[in-house]
Amino acid sequence: MTNKTLRILIADEHPYQRLQLEKLLNGLGYYRIAPVNCFEELQRLVQSALQPFDLLLGNIELASHAGVDLARFCRVSTQIQHALLYHSQHLKVPVVPPTEREAVSLSLPQAPDSEALESFMAIIDGPVLVGKIALPAGLGSSAAYTRKHRNFGQTVFSR
């Protein structure tokens, strides 16, 4: 089940690529998307954000034109939780073990296709187990719950 509240940034200087990625995300159920076309705009949005962005989906060349390492920018920014970065070439999202999913950052050889994007979103938008509550002694999972049957004998319905 998708978390429709995820805040996503798409950073690419090519309008067609931004639109294509936004459509792919919309198809997966994500709609809180902010597209940017230059590193300066990306930097302004990230620095002025009141809440962190859950995902930055970005073209590495966008920042390299400004002399910035986008992967490093994502690692040091507290306002970007996950990053899926790509270069301007078919690809496969590598498997990320659940223990390493705190902040996932990947670099791809080209813009992600629908399969790669769906795989990545499944990694960062998976269900989170917050905690387990112990059941009272009589309600444990191994104890069978039996309902006491009552014989009402004469009721309005049996007369």
How would you portray this structure in words?
With 159 residues, this protein is of the alpha/beta class. It has one domain (8-124): Response regulator (Rossmann fold). Helices cover 29% and strands 13% of the residues. The chain contains five helices and five strands; from the N terminus they run βαβαβααββα. The protein has helices spanning 15-27, 39-48, 60-64, 70-76, 114-124, and strands spanning 8-11, 33-36, 55-59, 83-86, 105-108. Strands 2-1-3-4-5 form a five-stranded parallel sheet, sandwiched between helices. Helix 1 links the parallel strand 1 (8-11) and strand 2. The longest helix has 13 residues, at 15-27. The chain starts with 7 loop residues before the first strand and ends in a 35-residue tail after the last helix.
Fold blueprint:
Layout: E1 8-11, H1 15-27, E2 33-36, H2 39-48, E3 55-59, H3 60-64, H4 70-76, E4 83-86, E5 105-108, H5 114-124
Parallel strand pairs: 1-2, 1-3, 3-4, 4-5
